[in-house]
Design a protein that fits this description.
Blueprint lengths: L5 H13 L4 E3 L2 E3 L6 E6 L4 E7 L3 H16 L1 H4 L3 H17 L1 H12 L3 H19 L16 E9 L2 E5 L5 H14 L3 E5 L6 H13 L6 E3 L4 H10 L5 E5 L2 H11 L5 E5 L5 E4 L5 H13 L11 E5 H17 L18 H16 L3 E4 L3 E2 L5 E2 L2 E4 L6 H4 L6 E7 L2 H9 L6 E5 L3 H10 L4 E4 L18 E2 L4 H7 L1 E9 L1
Bound molecules: 1,4-dihydronicotinamide adenine dinucleotide (NAI) and magnesium ion (MG).
């Protein structure tokens, strides 16, 4: 299904009229202390979708206090782990039952085509179900000890977590932060981006409906400078989980040092996608196009540097350009849209800034390179060639539907070029040769390497960055390590 149904549109309308002006603190919806609200825009039309409460420092204090009370309440601390799992299953079921409404909220707020939003909501359901299996499986070890000593370890929760998420793919970002918090017995104050807070607020309603104890999950839209900074500085927060730009990630890491919080960071990328001459070219080309245009290029892990082996460069580059020309730009609620709008005006301007940079550095514009329509933040999907790997166009995260095509002669050269970046989030390899695939996968400095596919993320597998793409991992067993700490108990017998 590509277009939202009438009853789904009506449900979203109802939510936007009733449900967005409040913050979720201590299991209740409350106005912000300052009573301040901000308009949230639809980037396809530039019209106001809703007014949303804007949290300030006082609201952060209230929410952290509530999360601390919830954390210290035996009702949560001593809860049967199976029961924590049941809450996660219940939340997953509620998200599934309201999938289309949640997808439409993200499409209206963030811009993503409705079919992609719906696929993301299904991934959110999977994420909550995955984490439902964890609470009863957390365990420690019995240590090898000399004679009269007995010692063992436990994995215990951290306490109150602060979660800060960006404006791209807001619903799945919220799920990646909230689900592990619940699974491992922590509590959380989540700050969605003030630009795209709607699906997180609706998730807050569903979490209340699930019966999860009050204060375990608190949701506060607010700005980074005010609510975000207050979370990072707060004494009673044990960990900050952040997704966003590398620049803000670095500043969070340094601010968090004064209270020595744990910090996990999912940051930017400029991921290489490498097409060898022996690849299934039909598949490689089709996926390579999706891998840099998905969500209008607003994704940390997208394959925006496409390396193509010289022997097939002409064919592959021409076919990529031809496919990009076919993509339909438009509103995410229209049936045949491939590329929705950029999510906000700052980003819209930033992407256009790179078109100027491309011109200045003499890159060849093959397709796109301009805005589309006279309303909404639309940008045509864009491909540049004649780009050197050390240029700004090939090194900086543009966060728009923009790829550079770079030829290479052999494996050694492409490994060197692919790794020649400050980032290290994702990488793609297209080849039919098993040895090439494994050798190159081993050589690439990236947290996720895809072979003959791209973009596939599953909660079973850890996700995160090498180098300046981040610290720590989300999802998979690694997230258990990120959301718990080890206690050693040592007994003299
Ligand atoms: P950002 O990094 O400022 O925003 C991400 C989140 O951090 C938002 O919730 C924001 O309110 C919060 N934040 C901002 N400053 C903060 C602070 N000092 N303390 C605590 N929280 C703070 O990203 P922005 O400015 O919206 O976008 C800038 C660029 O970053 C984009 O052009 C894009 O290139 C990149 N970006 C990358 C993302 C990724 O997932 N890799 C996500 C969003 C942006
Ligand atoms: Mg918006």
């Amino acid at each position: 299904m590509n277009e939202p149904r009438q009853d789904v549109i009506a449900a979203v309308k109802h939510f936007l009229e009733q449900g967005t002006k409040l913050l979720l603190i201590d299991g209740q919806w409350k106005p912000s202390s300052s009573k301040q609200t901000i308009p949230v825009l639809n980037p396809a039309t530039e019209s106001v979708l809703a007014e949303v409460a804007l949290a300030d420092r006082c609201d952060v204090d209230l929410a952290v206090a509530a999360a601390k009370r919830a954390y210290e309440d035996p009702n949560w601390t001593d809860m049967d782990p199976h029961q924590r799992g049941l809450y996660l299953i219940k939340i997953a079921d509620l998200v599934e039952q309201n999938a289309e409404e949640l997808a439409l909220l993200d499409t209206l707020d963030e811009g993503m085509p409705f079919s992609d939003s719906l696929a993301m909501v299904k991934d959110v359901v999977k994420t909550f179900r995955y984490y439902a299996g964890w609470p009863a499986r957390v365990h420690g070890f019995t240590n090898a000890s000399p004679g009269a000593i007995f010692s063992y370890t436990n994995r215990e929760p951290l306490g109150v977590c602060g979660a800060i998420i960006p404006w791209n793919a807001p619903f799945i970002m919220a799920a990646w932060k909230i689900a592990p918090v619940i699974a491992f017995g922590n509590t959380v104050v989540l700050k969605p981006s003030e630009l795209t807070p709607l699906s997180a607020l609706r998730l807050g309603e569903l979490i209340l409906e699930s019966g999860l104890p009050r204060g375990v999950v608190n949701i506060l839209p607010g700005t980074g400078a005010e609510a975000g900074a207050a979370l990072v500085a707060h004494h009673d927060i044990a960990k900050i989980a952040f997704t966003g730009s590398t620049a803000v990630g670095k500043s969070i890491l340094s601010s968090a040092s004064s209270t020595l919080k744990k910090v996990s960071l999912e940051l930017g990328g400029k991921s290489p996608n490498i097409i060898f001459e022996d690849a299934d070219l039909d598949q490689a080309i089709q996926v390579a196009v999706k891998a840099f245009t998905f969500n209008t290029g607003q994704g940390c892990v997208l394959g925006t540097r496409i390396f193509i082996q010289e022997s097939v460069y002409n064919e592959v580059s021409q076919r990529i350009i031809a496919q990009v020309k076919q993509l339909k730009v438009g509103s995410g609620v229209e049936n045949d849209t491939d590329i929705g709008p950029i999510t906000n005006i700052n980003q819209f301007n930033k992407v256009q800034g790179y078109f100027k940079i491309a011109q200045e550095q003499g890159a060849t514009l093959e397709v796109g390179g301009e805005t589309y329509g006279d309303k909404g933040y639309f940008i045509k999907p864009t491909v540049f060639t004649n780009v050197s790997n050390d240029s700004r166009l090939a090194q900086e995260e543009i966060f728009g539907p923009v790829a550079v095509l770079i030829p290479f002669s052999d494996e050694k050269e492409v490994i060197q070029k692919a790794n020649d970046t400050n980032y290290g989030l994702g990488a793609g390899i297209w080849t039919r040769n098993l040895s090439t695939a494994h050798r190159v996968a081993k050589a690439l400095n990236a947290g996720t390497v895809w072979i003959n596919t791209y973009l596939e993320v599953d909660p079973i597998a850890p996700f995160g960055g090498y180098k300046q793409s981040g610290m720590g991992r989300e999802l998979g067993q690694d997230s258990m390590l990120e959301y718990t700490q080890v206690k050693t108990v040592l007994i003299r017998l």
